[in-house]
Amino acid sequence: MHRRITVPGALAAACLLLAIPASAASHSPGAPGIGDPYYPDYGNGGYDVSHYDLRLKYQPATDELEGTATIEARTTQDLSSFDLDFLLDVSEVRVNGAKAAFTTSGQHELVVTPRTPLDKGTPVTVVVRYRGVPSTKSAYGFTTWHRTPDGAVAADEPEAAWWWFPSNDHPLDKATYDVSVAVPDGTQAISNGTLQSTSSKLGWTRYNWRQNKPQATYLATLALGKFDITTGTSEGGVPVVNAYSKDLGDNDGAARASVERTGELVDWLSGYFGPYPFASAGGYVPNTTTGYALETQTRVYYSPKQFANGSNASVVVHELAHQWYGDSVSLKGWKDIWINEGFARYAQWLWSEHEGEGTTQELADYVYASHPADDAFWTVKPGDPGPDNQFDAAVYDRGALAIQALRNAIGDDAFFAVLKGWPQRHAYGNASVADFQKYAEQVSGKPLAALFDTWLFQPSKPAAPAARAAALAPGRTAPARPESWRRIEATNDVHAR
Ligand code: TRP
Ligand code: ZN
Question: Where is this region: Disordered (predicted)?
């Protein structure tokens, strides 16, 4: 299966004698980062993962996680060594069956040196055996492993994987997953995709989850705790699996009254975005103290706080919209975050209009009018906000405003064709803001460089003529706040770690 290194006879003999890998001279270490300027050491260079197989065991009482990760990858350069992003304690690494040397470096790098250098374009199987207490590990001074009274949860953005599996941690390298987790009987393990099977033995129950479509590492999730799991199928035929911590207290009813609408809302969004891209949908609500929701692929993460004021279909719409915009079509670089958040926010605007709580136009006019020109809000460029402002409210609100401006400029027919065509065009892949502009120009037949520049890339409030041209109300007094506004903004409770 693995290509042998071939070299001219004499040189080969010399190399054998000296026990030097034959073509080592042309092989070099893979880069410790994939090349994203926002996060230079996230992801790695030199290989591309196609599948993660994670076989894990977790003890909630002690937060001990142990397991074996088997990674199927292909090299993209001649490699003498390569990195994985990981924080737990590694006991053994094998590359193509042979024990490999390994060490740690930087904030979260596991550097693996295979016994034999790897040639470009060859398949590689990497086995990593590890254990550790994830809650004791940090990088850059933070942890995103969330302990709960009955277990723990891995769900964060952009960093979550380091605490539970070794990976090429960047959305550019998507892969399929099998996640198999043994937990003590009575505890459940929730992850992405479909539950293939469960089995019980000697006091441990094993859950076998499968994600059969490419998934970014930050969209892989793991929840361990005592959950009530519900299953069903949407009217449109999408299987739904939801899970609720048995310890949600007063938020339990509102959480269920929101997340149980997943099937209905998936079908409703399909009307705008096209067929649901995955084999399963759903969400889970663990008993964490966090405030945010996250679009973990097929199995959305919801903090109980999202339901503290009653049911909230709007946040469910936001996270489900990401399944098309962000999960199936992922960003190329983290600067392209508008591809995710602008559209998930716009989906909430569409829902607001559907519910009679404010039209998309009213919401756009409100965003435009309620931030005066000297508001720092306008200094954030949704098309390239910088790592510190990646999840600033402007990325969401100005981002959705830009989408309404686009809609008004190209008309509803072209706009809704773009909205539905884009997730097909780049299904299961990656795309950038520039790719989106190109696609919208192609579908609408209109040049859109000026419009994108004004609404996504200028660090200032678009002036009245631009607003008028985009059919937004540039009036001096703010229009009334749409009824849906507060609930929509509550989705932004993302920042407190
Ligand atoms: N992508 C999430 C959403 O909008 C929000 C988010 C941003 C987030 N940063 C985060 C969630 C950090 C968890 C952690 O739905
Ligand atoms: Zn979002």
Answer: 470-497
How do strand 47-59 and strand 79-85 relate by DSSP bridges?
unpaired
* Residue 238 pLDDT: 98
pLDDT of residue 142: 96
Alpha-carbon distance 320 to 347, whole Å? 9
pTM for this prediction: 0.94
Which residue out of 336, 390, 391, 492 has the highest number of ligand 1 atoms within 8 Å of its CB and is therefore the one to mutate? 391
CATH placement of domain 1-184: 2.60.40.1730
pLDDT value for 476: 58
157 lines ligand 1 (CB under 6 A): yes
Give the model confidence (pLDDT) of 320-333 as tens digits: 999 999 999 999 99
With a 6 Å cutoff on the Cβ, whether 341 touches ligand 1 is yes
Helix (H, G, I), strand (E, B) or coil at 232: strand
Q: Is the CB of 292 under 6 A from ligand 1?
A: yes
The domain defined by 330-489 carries CATH number 2.40.10.120: no
CB 161 near ligand 1, within 6 Å: no
- Is 420:320 a contact under the CB 8 Å cutoff? no
Compute CA distances 16 → 5, 110, 119, 181, whole Å. Answer: 12, 29, 18, 44
If one residue of 157, 290, 315 were mutated to test the ligand 1 pocket, choosing by the most ligand atoms within 8 A of its CB, it would be 157
Q: Check if 392 has its Cβ closer than 6 Å to any atom of ligand 1.
A: no
**Mean pLDDT computed over every residue of the chain:** 94
Of the candidates 334, 391, 395, 339, the one whose C-alpha atom is nearest the C-alpha of residue 367 is 395
Residue pLDDT, tens place only, 26-51: 999 999 999 999 999 999 999 999 99
Distance 216 CA to ligand 2 centre (A): 15
Is the model's pLDDT at 4 over the cut of 80? no
Domain with CATH 2.60.40.1730 in the chain: 1-184
Please work out whether the CB of residue 293 comes within 6 Å of at least one atom of ligand 1: yes
Which part of the chain is CATH 1.10.390.10? 330-489
